Amino acid sequence: MTGTTSPALQTALAYYQAWTSHDLDKAMNYIADDIVCDTPGGRLDGADAYRGGSWARSCRFSPARR
To answer: What is the pTM of this model?
Structure first.
């Protein structure tokens, strides 16, 4: 394994850092407009639905796990 980090891993880590820092605006930069996300509360179609999902609102204000 090399000492460089792949672009895919860099993107995943940037999203994770934004999410766990409660920076939803920054995290949304990594979400595709046509995302489909199946949640316990139902399917979320599109970035607007993903951003507005009740689980996203609750996670935004919960303490980050370290």
So the answer is: 0.67
